[in-house]
Amino acid sequence: MATRHTLSREEAPPQWPLPPRQRPALADHSRDTLMAYLETAPLDEVDISDPIYWEADAHGPFFRRLRDEAPVHFTSLNSERHRGYWSVTRWADIMAVDTNHQVYSSDAHLGGITLFDMDADFIMPMFIAMDPPKHDVQRKAVNPIVSGMNLASFESLIRSRTEEVLDSLPRGEAFDWVDRVSIELTSRMLATLFDWPQEHRRKLTYWSDVSTSDPEVPGNPQKEERQGILLGMLQEFTQLWNAKVNAEPGNDLISMLAHNPATRNMPPMEFLGNLVLLIVGGNDTTRNSISGGVYFLNKNPQEYAKLRANPGLVESMVSETIRYQTPLAHMRRTALEDTILGGQRIRKGDKVVMWYHSGNRDERAIEAPESYIIDRPRARQHMAFGFGIHRCVGNRLAELQLKILWEEILKRFDNIELLDEPERVPSAFVRGYKSMMVRIPA
Amino acid sequence: MAKVTYIAFGGTETVIDVAEGVSLMEGALQNGVAGIDGDCGGNAACATCHVYVDADWLAMTGDRTEAELAMLDLADGLADNSRLACQIFAGPALDGIIVRMPESQH
């Protein structure tokens, strides 16, 4: 029987290129084929971290089976690549891990917060990948950017930009919603948060995509190339830092980092790490929830009709969309000691993956979780933002951006028509869309 | 049971009878009190039910647990009388309690 613990670095030293991945022998990797396979495949023979399942949005049956049959389940298939990992799939077990940072560490040096370890030769410490007390002081340095007062001051800016972007959209012709709306709005917001030049905002999107991209997927930058691009980003941000550190503190993220004693002397890789965190956190997530809303409303016309009839449902629709999308499918921890979780023995050093996407579909915690219901009671009770000390720091800003967007959409367009199935991101971490063709009737 | 007065950041007061053993977060949610979200369902894991307990009542609400304090410490506007409403449970001793919401929850 295969080992049921995460291999140590000595047992599975980092290799590049990674050893070949074992995959099921299937006629094709279409959604139907993969879902049919996952309905009956032996659970131990599936490595759900394989991007094929995510690109086709086919992972659902596997997580349903894990929740029912093996809620804390170890995957050793392909462990020479990922060292082996526990999948935690029920709401209550995920909550138990997420709120126990004393046992379940986020430390970058143990691999960090995603299923695949950070490159061992390119560790980027960032506060989401730190434990207390350092996590706490660094997080507090940037917390003021999303304070209640600051959000109130952002509101009119977000609204005027949203109006501008929506008013520029073509009528009666096909266009890519991801590019024209989701990326456009999130990159403008991100540039504002960083006080980064608006004319170069798409660089932020590019760096965000590179940070989370899988170097093995054809077309993505390879390992060294990826590291080079991120170092280039560090260089450009260092110029901005130098300008901010010698100026009066502004109301932007770089000023906050440069003027706070907890962060002003960060080593370069830690500065880079926190940049990656804030860029990905402020970009990928909201972007994919913006796209997801259009997709889900098209797939659920009765919900779209409800929303048109009652724009007062926007707030709960936003929460339901974030739950249904779960733009970050998982977060990972590393056990600091032997422990028991869901009846399974977790060993010190084991990788523990909390599948938020599965927790958000757990019928033990959420009624009719497979249905998209925009006026769901207690729609806010989802786990897409995580729980505990690492809970998304920007959640209220994300909700504000989405709320304003849908208010303005409903004022303008009776329909945003989905023309085709979207192209999805091949990643078990970022659950998102590369493109989504739509048309707004003339 | 306890009569609980919730005062939103803007000053709006809502008075609710919260049943014995029910948390002040749950009491607010069941009655639609604005400013208390309770996203984690009562696990002291989201800090969306942050309240300031009026001085006269603070001692009666008991001690903050380590988990509660860890969440409050990262929340906007931590004060000595900060509590998570999901960790305060109604009972006769709290009849008349007054709690106020921070700016970030409005």
Notes on the structure:
Chain A is of the alpha+beta class. Chain A has helices at 31-40, 51-55, 60-69, 79-82, 91-98, 134-142, 148-167, 177-194, 201-212, 223-245, 253-259, 268-281, 284-299, 301-309, 314-325, 356-359, 395-412, and strands at 72-75, 85-88, 104-105, 174-176, 331-335, 339-341, 344-346, 351-354, 417-418, 423-424, 433-435, 437-439. Chain A has a five-stranded mixed β-sheet with strand order 1-2-8-5-3, with helices on one face. In chain A, strands 4-12-9 form a three-stranded antiparallel β-sheet. The longest helix of chain A has 23 residues, at 223-245. By secondary structure, chain B is α+β, with helices and mostly antiparallel strands. Chain B contains three helices and five strands, in the order ββαβααββ. Chain B has helices spanning 24-30, 55-58, 66-74, and strands at residues 2-7, 13-18, 50-53, 82-84, 98-100. In chain B, strands 2-1-5-3-4 form a five-stranded mixed β-sheet. The longest helix of chain B is centred in the middle third of the chain and has 9 residues, at 66-74. The A-B interface holds A 95, 98-99, 101, 132, 136, 139-140, 143, 147-149, 151, 365, 378, 380-382, 385, 387-389, 391, 396 and B 9, 29, 37-41, 43-48, 67, 70-71, 73-74, 76-77, 102-106.
